[in-house]
Amino acid sequence: MSTSTASSVTQAGDAPIVRIVDLHKSFGHLEVLKSVNLDVYPGQVVTILGRSGSGKSTMLRCINHLEKPNSGAVMVCGEVVGYQVKGNRLHELRLRDIARQRKLTGMVFQSYNLFPHMTVMENLMEAPQRVLGRNGAEVREEALRLLDSVGLADKADAYPGTLSGGQQQRVAIARALVMNPRVMLFDEPTSALDPELVGEVLEVMKSLARSGMTMIVVTHEIGFARQVADEVVFMAEGRVVEQGPPSQVIDAPREEATRTFLRSLGQRNAPTAT
After folding, report:
1. Tens-place pLDDT, residues 116-161
2. What one-character-per-residue DSSP string does the chain give?
3. Number of other residues whose CB lies within 10 A of the CB of residue 9
4. pLDDT for residue 4
5. Between vectors from CA 239 to CA 233 and to CA 242, what angle results, nearest 5°?
6. Residue 13 has pLDDT above 60, yes or no
7. Residues of the chain above pLDDT 70, percent
8. For 49-68, how does the pLDDT look when each residue is reduced to its tens digit (9 = 90+)?
9. Is 60 exceeded by the pLDDT of residue 226?
């Protein structure tokens, strides 16, 4: 990590809850992220739009260090993720320290990632007890409350394989929330669902947004972005091409790449160039 990057992240001042600074990521010769910068403030809902391969999911995975940047940095709650600032240099943290930082973020994936051999309740209780060392009775009470909040209080003893895709994804959201994260990351959480199940997951996410949870959501659900997002970010070829409120990026995009993308999704009100 460069001296200039260390200087940038230590001079953040009144920093957002998530700050991405000049982020670069490559896989071999393929450069996936090219100098990405993004600030997310407490309580904001930020949706990330873009075609497959635009770098959206990779950027999300860099936020909790599931992917290690080649250069640049990510800050969450004032900490540089994966690194410690010493003087004007960034030094890589040990795995246990990175695991501690990951507790600040909860992540919901496309494919649920529930443990199939555990009941819904066991899925929710595993990490708080094993990772955080929390009391089992206390965790169970909170898990039941969260299951009720996602409409699944009656499924505590069910196994994931007996649930619909939408129900499994709602369990996955509850499982992330039981760790009490400061930021929730969603990586296309409805893309693996049948169309009739999408709505039930989006309703849970809307409720979460109304509660004030900071959320970064990679999605193709334009209606959700328009209704819920404070900020919409459009990415293409590893760069942030356009960002702003939904009224700008979705309803009156300034960049032709954004207009073309929205037209490809069948957005009737995606304007043409004037």
Report:
1. 999 999 999 999 998 888 898 999 999 999 999 999 999 999 999 9
2. --HHHHHHHHT-SS--SEEEEEEEEEETTEEEEEEEEEEE-TT-EEEEE--TTSSHHHHHHHHTTSS--SEEEEEETTEETTEEEETTEEEEPPHHHHHHHHTTEEEE-TT----TTS-HHHHHHHHHHHTT---HHHHHHHHHHHHHHTT-GGGTT--GGGS-HHHHHHHHHHHHHTT--SEEEEESTTTTS-HHHHHHHHHHHHHHHHTT-EEEEE---HHHHHHH-SEEEEEETTEEEEEE-HHHHTTS-SSHHHHHHHHHTT-TT-PPP-
3. 22
4. 47
5. 35
6. no
7. 92
8. 999 999 999 999 999 999 99
9. yes
Separation of CA 209 from chain center:
13
User: What does the pLDDT look like over 165-199, one tens digit per residue?
Assistant: 999 999 999 999 999 999 999 999 999 899 999 99
**Alpha carbon separation from 255 to 96, 128, 252 (Å, rounded):** 43, 44, 9
Nearest CA among 227, 54, 249, 51 for reference residue 259:
249
- The number of beta carbons lying within 10 Å of the beta carbon of residue 30 is 9
The pTM assigned to this predicted structure is 0.90
Tokens matching residue 84: 């410690």
Among residues 214, 258, 250, which one has the least CA distance to residue 232? Answer: 250
Helices 195-210 & 165-177 angle (0-180, nearest 10) = 20
pLDDT at 267 over 80: no
- Bridge-based pairing of strands 45-49 and 71-76 is unpaired
Rounded to a whole number of angstroms, the distance between the first and last alpha carbons of the chain is 43
Measured in residues, the chain has a length of: 274
